């Protein structure tokens, strides 16, 4: 029988000098540099993304390609030197593996130029690019077949992704050549353990798809790493999930080629078997390589948890390779373990977390960012536990690899546990985005008959507007709705904007975009569920003892005391995160009935609010006890924000409800009651592109509300002091009164958004106090907040006082806006760079007409 040297045997001549310690020191320093640069670059890139989002600026398409290319330059230079200069084969293999990893990072990072709203396109690109990279690496790694009898350790290449040639030496009768199939060693074609006879039964084709025990243990580790994501995350749509699986599998294929048998054997070379060296040193090197792959895998935000969970898998892979090498010292180890373990580990953050929800906008509560962080921490703990467990069981000098049956049972148990976790405490199902289809024809609201002054005239106008809108939608949507129902796409029709929301991905979007009656198709965001409620935001301030400073500043308390007007007879509608209907400052003002509350997100039957924003804003409009401008007015409410995010469809749900309220469960098309529409709407929200809106999507809605005689106030936004930052609907529209914020000294708040609006129109229209405003919070408490959101309801309250003082003014929106502007008081502008020359095109684009004056406006209205 011909002897085959073990893989750790040194193939060089005995007289060759051993390398000094400096290559190892250089490798350690390079590894630390790679980790520092990569982690800092990925975190900084995400923070810049979030900063631009918070400031309302356009997304920088060049950001992530620039970050990736800079990382390639900073990291690639030392890795090239490490891959070429040292005499140590292990150090050169280290450098080459890291060099390939950083090149993959640069390549994958280019894909982040794809907007996050098109997540399916990004995942498809990642899958295709990773498959191409795996094929290229595999082709580059091919080498000529080794002559018979040549020891494997001496014949292997030391480059990253190198594939060892098969060994044709025989060990005696019945021995067969090593395979590259799914088995774990030569002659193990049926997945049998070492005790089984070589050349065992089973056709080779069937054996190719039958993993051996080491690959099964890698699958078990991958299932374990998926457990936190199945528990704490939620899947997207069907296509999104399939593409995430393909991308993860492709990343696993890349890891299988990069961390192949030749790579691991470089860390087992020596005079004696050293599994500890293989696990510790090889695991560290592999972990850094996986860190680089993880940094490039996933849209902005989704790669951050992978930076935590994927690198520790390097130690588990090293342990599995040591076990496989012990079982088959002369054979070539397959790439199956790396493919399965890395692929499953990458699938978690790619599939179970929406990158658009990994945002600082949701970081103030136990929302998606919190649960992603928990999942990443749990994944890190699981990865370390797997590495330690496998190390203790498999990498000991006397350790033994379990039989295939034992490994298969372990993998099966963890797979069943994964399914049970997802179906039990997890969030089973698919939660993909929907599509918002805007039709070309919108209702013609011109030529409305002249209305009588006051509420009767307003109600008649609202009824006619409602009739025209519904008739247009029914006529133009009929054929499209039939086709959508036949395809099972669950259409939800709208009339305030002639539009339909449907299920579907890129293919459905392309089909709809080609239909002649369709103007455009937008993505309507859908939040994925949380493993536990985010919790209710509560206030900690004491209850006010009199009119708040902002109430006194605009003179609302004088209107109450001197003019005897509190807003009686007027109804204000709030579209926001909800309202705590039991709050003592708000409970008595609720209009009641079956058509005063609507929650399209969760279907709640009575006014509730977990976020707190809606309770605070409505309190500033109608709250009692000194917090509201019009405490005698009534209110109705609708939930258009869930966890501080919305979508075009849900914003429209609430605006429709405000034009023609309907009973719970009623059809907005047939059960609407325009005569029950509130008089004034306060809207402290905006719909940016990340939520699916474009500049004009809600324009027909505000035009219809204006035509119906419903006064619409909207927050300017908190993206100042940038000029032209009033750009998210509905604030830029000419038929809404856009409200900015001032502080107690009438200085424009630096965060208050500025004009001009798109098209050049001056905005904001007026200002109101928005810094340090105390109002109601859920649970009966009070809190102090800043923002144009706080200013806007105060203006709605002033309009309520004006219309209460002069009921004939109800529905006369144009005259009301004019009176507000004419009676406003001057405000002190602020500038982006303390430079008066930076006036955003004109003073009116910073201060508008000035700060609203409730006392002067009510007197003028009378």
Automatic annotation (TrEMBL):
Residues 144-154, 198-207 have a biased composition (Low complexity). Keywords: Hydrolase, Membrane, Protease, Serine protease, Transmembrane, Transmembrane helix. Residues 144-207 are annotated as: Disordered. SUPFAM superfamilies: Subtilisin-like. The chain crosses the membrane at residues 21-41, 61-85, 97-115, 121-137, 214-231, 243-264, 276-298, 304-324, 336-353, 368-394, 406-424. It comes from the Bacteria. The active site is at 576 (charge relay system), 613 (charge relay system), 789 (charge relay system). Residues 567-827 form the Peptidase S8/S53 domain. GO terms for biological process: proteolysis. GO terms for molecular function: serine-type endopeptidase activity. Belongs to the peptidase S8 family. This is Peptidase S8. It comes from Micromonospora costi.
């Amino acid at each position: 029988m011909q002897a085959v040297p073990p893989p750790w045997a040194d193939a060089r001549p005995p007289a060759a000098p051993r390398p000094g310690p400096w290559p190892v020191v250089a490798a350690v320093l390079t590894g630390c540099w790679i980790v520092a640069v990569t982690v800092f670059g990925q975190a900084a890139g995400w923070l810049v993304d979030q900063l631009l989002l918070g400031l309302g600026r356009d997304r920088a398409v060049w950001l992530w390609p620039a970050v990736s290319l800079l990382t390639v330059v900073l990291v690639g230079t030392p890795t090239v030197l490490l891959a070429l200069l040292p005499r140590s084969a292990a150090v050169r293999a280290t450098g080459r593996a890291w060099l390939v990893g950083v090149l993959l990072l640069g390549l994958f990072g280019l894909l982040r130029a794809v907007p996050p709203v098109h997540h399916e396109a990004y995942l498809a690109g990642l899958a295709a690019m990773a498959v191409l990279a795996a094929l290229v690496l595999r082709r580059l790694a091919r080498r000529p077949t080794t002559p018979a009898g040549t020891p494997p350790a001496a014949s292997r290449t030391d480059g990253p992704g190198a594939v060892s040639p098969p060994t044709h030496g025989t060990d005696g009768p019945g021995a067969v050549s090593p395979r590259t199939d799914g088995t774990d060693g030569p002659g193990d074609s049926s997945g049998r353990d070492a005790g089984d006879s070589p050349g065992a039964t089973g056709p080779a084709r069937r054996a190719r798809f039958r993993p051996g025990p080491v690959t099964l243990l890698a699958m078990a580790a991958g299932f374990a790493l998926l457990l936190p994501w199945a528990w704490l995350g939620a899947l997207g749509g069907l296509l999104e999930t399939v593409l995430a699986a393909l991308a993860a599998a492709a990343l696993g294929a890349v890891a299988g080629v990069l961390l192949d048998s030749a790579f691991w054997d470089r860390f087992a070379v020596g005079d004696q078997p050293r599994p500890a060296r293989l696990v510790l040193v090889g695991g560290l090197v592999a972990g850094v390589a996986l860190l680089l792959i993880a940094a490039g895998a996933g849209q902005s935000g989704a790669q951050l948890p992978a930076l935590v969970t994927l690198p520790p898998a390097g130690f588990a892979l090293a342990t599995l390779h040591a076990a496989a090498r012990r079982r088959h010292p002369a054979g070539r180890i397959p790439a199956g373990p790396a493919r399965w373990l890395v692929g499953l580990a990458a699938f978690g953050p790619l599939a179970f977390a929406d990158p658009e929800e990994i945002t600082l906008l949701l970081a103030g509560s136990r929302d998606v960012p919190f649960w992603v962080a928990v999942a990443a921490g749990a994944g890190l703990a699981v990865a370390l536990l797997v590495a330690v467990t496998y190390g203790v069981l498999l990498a000991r000098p006397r350790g033994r690899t379990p039989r295939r049956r034992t490994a298969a049972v372990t993998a099966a148990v963890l797979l069943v546990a994964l399914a049970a976790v997802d179906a039990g405490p997890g969030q089973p199902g698919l939660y993909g985005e929907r599509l918002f289809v805007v039709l070309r024809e919108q209702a013609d609201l011109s030529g409305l008959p002249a209305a009588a002054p006051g509420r009767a005239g307003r109600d008649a106008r609202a009824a006619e507007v409602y009739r025209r809108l519904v008739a247009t939608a029914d006529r133009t949507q009929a054929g499209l709705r039939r086709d959508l129902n036949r395809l099972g796409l669950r259409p939800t029709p709208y009339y305030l904007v002639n539009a339909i929301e449907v299920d579907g991905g890129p293919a459905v979007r392309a089909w709809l975009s080609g239909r002649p009656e369709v103007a455009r198709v937008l993505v309507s965001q859908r939040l994925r569920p949380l493993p536990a409620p985010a919790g209710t935001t509560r206030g900690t301030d004491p209850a006010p003892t009199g009119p708040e400073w902002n109430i006194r500043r605009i003179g609302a308390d004088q209107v109450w005391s001197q003019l005897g007007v509190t807003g009686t007879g007027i109804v204000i509608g709030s579209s926001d995160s909800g309202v705590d209907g039991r709050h003592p400052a708000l409970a008595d003002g609720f209009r009641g009935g079956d058509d005063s509350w609507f929650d399209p997100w969760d279907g709640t039957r009575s006014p509730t609010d977990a976020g707190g924003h809606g309770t605070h804003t409505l309190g500033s409009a109608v709250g009692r006890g000194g917090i509201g401008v019009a405490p005698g007015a009534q209110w109705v409410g609708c939930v258009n924000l869930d966890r501080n995010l919305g979508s075009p469809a849900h914003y429209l749900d609430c605006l429709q409800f405000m034009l023609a309220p309907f009973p719970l469960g009623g059809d907005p098309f047939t059960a609407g009651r325009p005569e029950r529409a509130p008089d004034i709407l306060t809207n402290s929200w905006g719909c940016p592109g990340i939520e699916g809106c474009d500049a004009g999507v809600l324009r027909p809605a505000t035009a219809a509300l204006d035509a119906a005689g419903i006064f619409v106030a909207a927050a300017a936004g908190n993206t100042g002091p940038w000029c032209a930052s009033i750009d998210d609907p509905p604030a830029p529209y000419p038929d809404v009164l856009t409200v900015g914020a001032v502080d107690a000294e009438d200085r424009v708040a630096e965060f208050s958004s500025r004009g001009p609006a798109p098209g050049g129109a001056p905005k904001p229209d007026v200002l109101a106090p928005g810094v340090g405003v105390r109002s109601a919070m859920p649970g009966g408490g009070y809190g102090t907040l800043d923002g144009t959101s706080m200013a806007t309801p105060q203006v709605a309250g002033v309009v309520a006082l004006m219309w209460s003082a002069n009921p004939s003014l109800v529905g006369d929106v144009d005259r009301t806006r004019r009176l507000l502007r004419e009676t406003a008081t001057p405000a002190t502008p602020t500038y982006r760079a303390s430079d008066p020359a930076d006036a955003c095109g004109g003073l009116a684009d910073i201060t508008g007409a000035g700060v609203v004056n409730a006392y002067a406006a009510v007197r003028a209205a009378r």
